[in-house]
Design a protein that fits this description.
The structure holds 2 protein chains of 2 kinds. Chain A is built from 18 helices and 24 strands. Chain A is of the alpha/beta class. Chain A folds into 3 domains: 234 residues, Rossmann fold; 189 residues, Rossmann fold; 78 residues, no CATH class. In chain A, the strands form 6 sheets. Chain A has a 6-stranded mixed β-sheet, with helices on both faces. A 6-stranded mixed β-sheet of chain A has the order 18-21-22-15-23-24, sandwiched between helices. In chain A, strand 13 and strand 14 form a beta hairpin. Chain B has 2 domains: 100 residues, no CATH class; 246 residues, ABC transporter involved in vitamin B12 uptake, BtuC (Orthogonal Bundle), CATH 1.10.3470. Chain B has 18 helices and no strands. The longest helix of chain B has 32 residues. The termini of chain B are far apart. Chain B is mostly helical. Classes of the chains: A alpha/beta, B mainly alpha. Chains A and B meet through helix 10, helix 11 and strand 20 of A and helix 12 and helix 13 of B.
Chain lengths: 523, 428
């Protein structure tokens, strides 16, 4: 029996890059085939070719052994290929039913929309594949995990046999990821095939039947999870040995740098999202804030950096009260901030690399004399930092938007680390980054800690928190449940706290402690 | 037609050297070429479409095409002649007739009589005089764009600036020129600045969208101008005009009358350079550009977004006001009703065509001024209505605003560059 999908010699060049270089890929019926690779390895380009969004320069596509040519998404859908994009293509003010039928609206008597029929079909699909969705719910009211299920139903409604999922776990909580994997398994049990694009090793090991690794637009190899290890996959992705363990000495905490007392913060909608939070961070230690996304971490960081006003409570940075002050005053107190959303906050994308390297210090000497910018100094500074922090860019004059995500993050890290800082607030510093960049940025954060900087690390990735932190504060519904030394607790225990279980009960349920100073970092 | 068109282009986008500065340290010839490619092709395409409109609305050409199958040569020749006459007279209107210039120089050398020469250069000096307010008003809108603000109020700011400078110009007497003239210019800039600062302040404090408020400020300025010209500022007589300004407030002219070309043009070029320096070489300019490109990122970096909104709108208004001032102090010497008609709105097109870069604005303003100035001659010599120029200008702006069209027509591959974000959408 021929493979359900076969790609032969797919090649696609963009000006200056060969995104896909003679890629062969074979997907069997009823399997989950993971496409693993770093950002920029060519995964998304390949799938866009398959979905008809790009035209390949060379190569053939076979579906059920028949060569086909795909000129657009409608061709792809006609051939049974469906795509679930990383960023959902849903309309929030419409119901699930309306979103599913959009584009192929069935009608009664030729003019009236037949929502009843669509809703019935949606229920059938959700029962068959274990995709719980209320057809009448408005998309805007649904959690992200449910929105993704609607996207999958949309594809199944169009009778897709091959489902492409582009980085489907990037936006999900750990529990939602589990739910998604269940759905994927039920899909292949019903004879569908799934192509699963990701750069997370843990996920492919958990769910894939075959793993094809891409690097620099070429196929490095195809393996099964049984014959692969995370180390081996990481090495295939990056092209060299990768250190999956964060090496760090025990912390030597010194004086208190950040002291927060009974902090309350309201978000834009006047919800009390940070509700009476108290903690401190010492010089030379990493305090990790763990928690499922949306439990007040974002607002906590915004309040600490002056981007959101404080409702009540106290923030003390280096023995000075910070209240009703501007972000600039806080930065000038020696606070560095790696923001959660690097493209929205961390960078001016249309600005060249050299201007982004002085985004917080451009007005100070030596970068400015009076109001006059010292272009030469700024450029020199950028060139030095690009070298020092290994930012991959053709030169410092290109807009930072042309850099890959990992290199954009390195620009931010370079900028924030290059000025004298006492406190580093790192919010999801490795979100969406590839293995190589994660390794690098983790190393730099520990280096800063060892230099005597206080580090506040906020991340929904529990592995990252455990790997880097000396103490862990768990946030749940705007409050800190408990602060524990990371060496004394297990991952399961933190996970239970994150899910809202009370510390006493969590201790009963998960009494083990790992007592490890080196924790494996799984991507 | 082709010959004329390319001549026009060569003449109106004359200074690639100027633009090459924009690349700064990282720039190279390639970058300048890339930046100028779309505008130049847009202008060319606009002129080609203009030619089609000219030929297609000419009675004799239409008649000739009625007989196309009997005498195709006549039809094509007629088409050619019509277009050549129109664009030829446009060129002469904008730059003057080359033969007249040569004869003028000969007469001057032979007899020492300047008159013929002055008449020969009259068209080109008039064009340059027309370019002056376009440069300043175009800069005004460009500064707004750089901060992510759409200043539709240049029209009103222009008018208020003109009224303020005229008031200072005629009401204060007995000052030496080196005090009076700067004072009058400053009054114009200050009037425009206030008119621009109001919507800027409203946006900063209340979040009211500047497009709505600048439009409203335009209406207020029109009515205010009408009232002033019919009341407090009216000169004796029947017509709603201000008195003529004092000699000491006039921008000195380079040549004897009727040539009106004056120092305003030089001032505009200097201001363009200052705006360039301000936007790209100072911390304040960097803040304005950062706020325009990404307000969230600017706030994160410690910049005050609202302060920059007010600053950019004030500066934008000041430039538009200064445009009005140069028109009054250099060309008209008084203000009449509907004084500002069109400059403010044309300046939006000029800023777009100039890609919001000060040097681009100068080039675009040049095109606008020369087209406008040549159009009158085209109308009288070739019988082609002035409105054809508006059509060409409109098309050029459409092509610049929709570069995908130009790329498609000329099969230009998209360089991997970020599109310029001029303004952000409504709401947040």
């Amino acid at each position: 029996m021929p493979a359900v999908l076969e790609l032969r010699g797919i090649t696609k060049s963009f000006p200056g890059v060969r995104a896909n270089d003679g890629i062969d890929l074979m997907v069997e019926k009823g399997e989950i085939h993971a496409l693993l690779g770093e950002n920029g390895a060519g995964k998304t380009t390949l799938m866009n070719i398959l979905y008809g969004l790009y035209k390949p320069d060379a190569g053939q596509v076979f579906i059920q052994g028949q060569e086909v040519s795909i000129h657009g998404p409608s061709d792809a859908i006609a051939h049974g290929i469906g795509m679930v994009h990383q960023h959902f293509m849903l309309i929030p003010v419409m119901t699930a039913t309306e979103n599913v039928m959009l584009g192929i609206e069935p009608t009664r008597n030729g003019i009236f929309l037949d929502k009843v029929r669509v809703a019935k079909r949606i229920r059938e699909i959700s029962e068959q594949y274990d995709l719980a969705v209320d057809p009448q719910a408005y998309i805007g009211d649904l959690p992200v995990g449910s929105q993704q299920r609607v996207e999958i139903i949309k594809v199944l409604y169009r009778e897709a046999d091959i489902l492409i999922l582009d980085e489907p776990t990037a936006v999900l909580t750990p529990q939602e990821v589990e739910g998604l994997f269940k759905v994927l398994r039920s899909l292949i049990a019903h004879g569908k095939s799934v192509i699963f694009i990701t750069h997370k090793l843990k996920e492919v090991m958990a769910v894939a039947d075959h793993i094809t690794v891409l690097r620099g637009g070429r196929v490095v190899g195809t393996v099964t999870p049984a014959e692969a290890t995370p180390e081996k996959l990481a090495a295939m992705m990056v092209g060299r040995e990768v250190n999956l363990v964060v090496k760090k000495k025990p912390a030597e905490p010194k004086e208190v740098v950040l002291d927060v007392k009974d902090l309350c913060v309201q978000d834009e909608h006047k919800h009390m999202t940070v509700d009476g939070v108290s903690f401190d961070v010492h010089a030379g230690e990493v305090l990790g804030v763990a928690g499922v996304q949306g439990n007040g971490q974002t607002e906590l960081v915004y309040a600490l950096t002056g981007l959101l006003p404080i409702d009540s409570g106290e923030i003390c940075i280096v023995n000075e009260l910070v209240r009703h002050t501007t972000p600039r005053k806080i930065l000038e107190r020696g606070v560095a901030h790696i923001p959660e959303d690097r493209q929205r906050h961390g960078l001016i994308l249309s600005f060249p690399v050299h201007d982004n390297m002085v985004l917080c210090t451009y007005y100070q000497p030596p970068f400015a004399k009076g109001v006059s910018l010292q272009q030469d100094v700024i450029i020199e500074n950028a060139e030095k930092l690009v070298k020092q922090f290994d930012v991959r860019t053709p030169n410092v004059f290109v807009p930072v938007s042309t850099l890959s995500g990992g290199n954009q993050q390195k620009v931010i890290v370079a900028r924030e680390f290059s000025r004298p800082i006492k406190l580093l607030i790192a919010s999801q510093p490795t979100r969406g980054l590839d293995v190589g960049s994660i390794e690098y940025i983790h190393g730099r954060i520990i280096e800063k800690r060892d230099e005597g900087t206080a580090v506040l690390l906020v991340s929904p990735e529990l592995d990252e928190i455990i790997a880097l932190s000396d103490r862990i504060a768990v946030m749940y519904k705007g409050q800190i449940v408990e602060i524990v030394a990371s060496a004394e607790v297990s991952k399961e225990y933190i996970g239970l706290l994150m899910a809202g279980v009370k510390p006493a009960e969590a201790r009963k349920a998960s009494p083990t402690s790992t007592k490890a100073t080196e924790v494996e970092r799984v991507f | 037609m082709d010959r004329n068109t390319t001549e026009m282009q060569a003449a109106q986008m004359p200074d690639p050297k100027n633009a090459s500065k924009r690349g700064g340290k990282g720039g190279s010839g390639g970058k300048v070429f890339q930046t100028l490619l779309i505008p130049v092709l847009s202008i060319f395409t606009g002129l080609v479409f203009g030619a089609i409109v000219i030929a297609g609305t000419d009675a004799s050409v239409i008649a000739a095409y009625g007989n196309f199958f009997r005498a195709p040569g006549t039809a094509l020749l007629d088409t050619w002649n019509t277009i050549a006459l129109a664009y030829g007279s446009l060129f002469v209107g904008a730059f003057g007739s080359p033969t007249a210039v040569v004869q003028g120089i000969q007469a001057y050398l032979a007899t020492g009589d300047q008159k013929a020469l002055l008449m020969a250069i009259y068209p080109v000096t008039e064009s340059l005089a027309a370019v002056t307010p376009y440069i300043l008003a175009g800069l005004a809108v460009a500064v707004g764009f750089k901060c992510g603000l759409f200043n539709i109020g240049a029209e009103g700011q222009f008018g208020i600036g003109a009224l303020c400078s005229a008031f200072v110009g005629y009401s204060i007497k007995g000052l030496p020129w080196f005090v009076h003239l700067p004072l009058a210019l400053l009054a114009g800039a200050a009037g425009g600045a206030i008119w621009g600062a109001i919507p800027g302040y409203l946006k900063a404090v209340t979040g009211a969208h500047e497009v709505v408020n600048t439009i409203m400020m335009n209406y207020i300025s029109f009515s205010l101008g009408d009232w002033l010209l019919n009341g407090p500022m009216k000169a004796p007589g029947y017509r709603p005009l201000t008195p003529v300004i004092q000699d000491s407030a006039m921008l000195p002219r380079f040549f004897p009358p009727p040539l009106r070309f004056n120092w305003g043009f030089v001032l505009a070029l200097v201001i363009a350079f200052l705006v360039y320096w301000f936007l790209f070489k100072t911390t304040l300019g960097m803040e304005i550009r950062a706020v325009g490109a990404n307000p969230d990122g600017a706030r994160y970096a410690g910049m005050s977004v609202v302060r920059n909104f007010v600053l950019a709108m004030t500066l934008s208004g000041a430039l538009a006001g200064l445009a009005g001032a140069t028109q009054v102090l250099g060309i008209d010497h008084w203000v009449g009703q509907n004084f500002s008609s069109g400059y403010g709105f044309d300046s939006i097109a000029i800023a777009l065509l100039g890609q919001s870069h000060p040097f681009g604005v100068v080039l675009a303003a040049g095109l606008w001024g020369f087209l406008r100035s040549g159009a009158t001659n085209m109308q009288s010599m070739a019988g082609v209505p002035l409105d054809v120029i508006s059509i060409i200008q409109g098309l050029v702006v459409i092509f610049v605003a929709a570069p995908a069209m130009i790329r498609w027509v000329y099969h230009i591959r998209l360089a991997r560059a970020e599109a310029i974000v001029l303004t952000r959408g409504w709401g947040k």
